[in-house]
């Protein structure tokens, strides 16, 4: 959530979406891990020809107010990339995918900051989801201290 981190991750995430050729309308994932990444990517897209809206997927619907699982400018019919800070088992991304699909969104794939390489990518791919990660655990471990 640091300014430097957001300034780095936003453009990198936007570039990864473009490289994957995911023409998304909106980006978001399960709160709290996905929130700063989604917002950084949305902000990085603001002055492009195709700005991307960011939204949040609650862990459970509030019992008051709108009672919605998705908060923010998500719209039914949106093409969406689900965001994960770290993929471990894939369960958080799967919950977000299910919530977006239930709200009428079309999930194009999952964008992760880090893939821990502990089976989460495979669990998502088994469900027909494309997965793009900015780095893997092996990438991080390969960097000398």
Descriptive notes:
The chain is α/β, with parallel strands linked by helices and 145 residues long. The protein has a single domain, classed as Rossmann fold (3-Layer(aba) Sandwich). The chain contains five helices and six strands. A six-stranded mixed β-sheet has the order 3-2-1-4-5-6, sandwiched between helices. The radius of gyration is 15 Å and the shape is globular.
Order of strands side by side in the largest beta sheet?
Answer: 3-2-1-4-5-6
Structural class: alpha/beta
Domain count: the total is 1
Order of helices and strands: HEHEEEHEHEH
Name of the top-level CATH class:
Alpha Beta
List keywords for this structure.
145 residues, alpha/beta, Rossmann fold, 5 helices, 6 strands
Write the layout of secondary structure elements.
Layout: H1 3-19, E1 26-30, H2 35-45, E2 53-57, E3 70-71, E4 79-87, H3 91-102, E5 106-115, H4 120-126, E6 131-136, H5 137-142
Parallel strand pairs: 1-2, 1-4, 4-5, 5-6
Antiparallel strand pairs: 2-3
Helix pairs in contact: 1-2
